[in-house]
Amino acid sequence: MSGASVLYDVPGPKAKVRNRVYTVLGGLVVLALIGFVVMRLNATGQFEPERWDIFNNAGVRTNIRNGLLTTLEVFAVAAVLSLLLGILLAVGRLSDHKPVRWLATGFIELFRAVPLLITIYVIWVLLLTNRDALGLSGDQPQFWALVIGLTVYNGSVQAEVLRAGINSVPKGQSEAAYALGMSKTQVMTTVLIPQAVRAMLPTIISQLVVTLKDTSLGYIITFEELLYTARLMSTNILVNGEDTYVPFIIVTGSLYVAMCLALSALANWIERRGRRAKTGIGVAAAGEPVTATDALETAAPADVPADAKD
């Protein structure tokens, strides 16, 4: 049986050459656009030294640092909560009890369909109007509105990722666990979920990158994360009577890119490490299903001789 994907044919020699040509042409177009933007910014004086001298101010650097730390704090809390919620929803959606399965499915479909910005805003209004009853003060309504919004949305997405990982585990493993007398809870927690997490780890971390980027939506509820802090300073700090949007956009964008690249590098490192592992179910690349044969091959002990396996 051919290893080609059923979604497309493997490109031949001419198609490969054509794809390379398209790639080069596309790259040249992107470089031309970037060059045009840089020239326009330079023509309007956006690269003048006095515009960038503002970052030598200790107060500006402190505000950027505080905004960055606040962004990372929201991300850390939302990432942990979304993973926990994702596991709970994935298990619920695979439950044998119909009410539990319907409730988990409805929750996932609802918060995946509603735009995240609307979810954050609605939660913020609810927390703000009930702040005294909940014992919240200061910017806590904004913080928890952003965290809860990110948690319910990304938790719903992570649930589908984990469900796909659980379904990719060969059925023989759960059947063998049941034959040993293990309960469904034991099978799920000790056999299925650990392998599903390992198999889908690159995808899970890729969704965490989305979580990190979505923290910038806190600006809509005036939460002082990195983007809101930069936007506030760009309107209040003037150079030659003009705003400083462009310098702050470039610096803030660079910080977001650096954080996302760090998480993406972590995902790639975990995927490479998983492919070198000798035990367990293999890490599935994007679009590559995990077969039972692959799982059994990777599960074979490395020190067993070849003739003994036969």
Explain this structure.
The chain has 310 residues and is an all-alpha fold. 74% of the residues lie in helices and 0% in strands. It has 14 helices and no strands. α7 packs antiparallel against α10. The longest helix has 36 residues. The protein is flat. The two termini are 23 Å apart.
Uncertain runs are: 1-6, 289-310
The largest sheet, given as strand count, sense and whether it forms a barrel, is: none
Number of strands: 0
Distance between the termini: 23 Å
The whole-number mean of residue pLDDT values reads: 83
Indicate the structural class: mainly alpha
**Overall 3D geometry?**
flat
Radius of gyration: 25 Å
Q: How helix-rich are the residues, as a percent range?
A: over 70%
Order of helices and strands: HHHHHHHHHHHHHH
A few lines on this structure:
The protein is 74% helix and 0% strand. The chain has 14 helices and no strands.
Throw out a few tags for this protein.
310 residues; mainly alpha; 14 helices; 74% helix; disordered N terminus; disordered C terminus
